[in-house]
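Reviewer 2 asked us to include a model.

Predict the structure of this chain.
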Amino acid sequence: DNGLKKRQELSVKYWLGKGNQDVEDILQTGLRRPTSDNAIFEALETYLPMATKNNPAPVVVADNTPDGEILAYKVQKALVYHADISNLKMKMKNCTRDWALKFFGMIKVGWSEKNNDIIIKRIKPTNLILDPDACVDEAEYNGAFIGEYKKETAKIIVDRFPKFKKEITAEVNDKMDTILQYVEWWTPEYVCW
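Predicted model (structure tokens):
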């Protein structure tokens, strides 16, 4: 990670107003920051409300037929509805803060089994495993995989993966409220856990 975690920790520490760096921090990262004025906090927290004032306007393109235009209109209205009910503005604000302080921000669109509907979630950068050979070009991640650390109770994991009930139950000594961590892997071809 070439010191990325240390730089992320120092950025967050400075943003919180704890800018007094010790000599070790400066030597490890090469970053020297003033201890009195917290310019990062002021600039970032002034910018965020402006950047996330409104939900992004969805752009839906269809063919020029009457049916196509009606479909595009309905899809656009559905996207606006989902942005509103999922509080997308706040998720974008937190994601933008992650980008500024931790050098990476991520919002994930998925499916809620509970609500049987689309779900939009902000994912903490520290919960991600990224392809070390990947880069982001024009806002598109081009890595071979993304991993996400997830935590659930043993009971929920058994419900999701009943084939492994015996192994999971043995791992937690029949204490099904035990929190377990696992990794969800995404590739262009498949998702696995």
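The first helix runs from residue 4 to 15. The chain has a mean pLDDT of 85. We have added this to the supplementary material.
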